[in-house]
Amino acid sequence: MKPTAAPGITEKDVLHPRNPHRAPYDFPQLSKASPELAAFVRPNPYGVQSIDFANPAAVKALNRALLRQFYGIEHWDIPKGYLCPPIPGRADYVHYLADLLAGSNGGTLPPGEDILVLDVGVGANCIYPIIGRRAYGWHFVGSDVDGVAVRAAQQIEAANPSLAGAIECRLQPARTRIFDGLIQAGEGFDLTMCNPPFHASAAEAAAGAQRKSTGLGTGPGTTGRGPRPVLNFGGQNNELWCEGGEAAFIRRMVQESGRRPGSCYWFTTLVSKKDTLPGVYRALKTAGATEVRTIDMAQGQKKSRLVAWTFLSPRQQEIWRRTRWNSVPEAGH
What we know:
Helices cover 35% and strands 16% of the residues. It has helices at residues 27-33, 56-71, 87-103, 127-136, 147-159, 202-215, 237-240, 245-258, 277-287, 314-324, and strands at 42-43, 49-50, 116-120, 139-144, 167-171, 189-194, 264-271, 291-299, 302-310.
């Protein structure tokens, strides 16, 4: 049943139907679940209870409250300056991946305990594994090139009994590699997922932060808190930019996936820029992908999409379903 929005407030119906964050934030309820949030909640200019989304501490407190209320996570923290992601958009990616799996299995979602997901760039926040584990019971391997991020994600897993044994965090030893040196011999994943670095340089990332800061009313020429941009969601350099931006990162991901075609059923990635898609499709054709799907979605308040590809033949896909998901073979096979 479609959730009902509060009177006088427009529902965020761009989010996935199963996303529990479709309705506007219920700050009074969230404050009950997480009292530390209450210190940041006050009426906005429209008289509605909210927080200052330009305040990193307020955003962090909101995330803690959401994780506690919706995902049963009692202990969650990230090092200062690391990415504190908007949870509704992150949840959308996970729910669309569940649809992708179900669509590959005759409309039935494979049992959660059978699904192994590789989260490329898990980050210190460990958000995707938390959501995927709590929503669908999936098991995760989270990789990152940043040792501090890996240790922080491990601490989140260790501090929450509901995540015990469900998340393995690995350090990617080569900063310019994605799957190489990470996926082990004989290892198979049902899904990979990734939110690539968006920007192509540190300067571009800083300019993006300035534009965002101005939009939030905190940049030059506003009546906000001053001229310096505020990264309300934070982010280290490797989380925000890489040489060539998302286009180069995804092309490299496609190339590396093509060197291990049988290691995963569906490789996937978010693609923020529509202009990135033609180059991704060319790379996938060159790599020999047998099937490519593009799924439009919302990532927070902006339009985005995920691209999924596989190298498995129809016969190989059937064997995968039967042996890994305990699916009943299709008629005639």
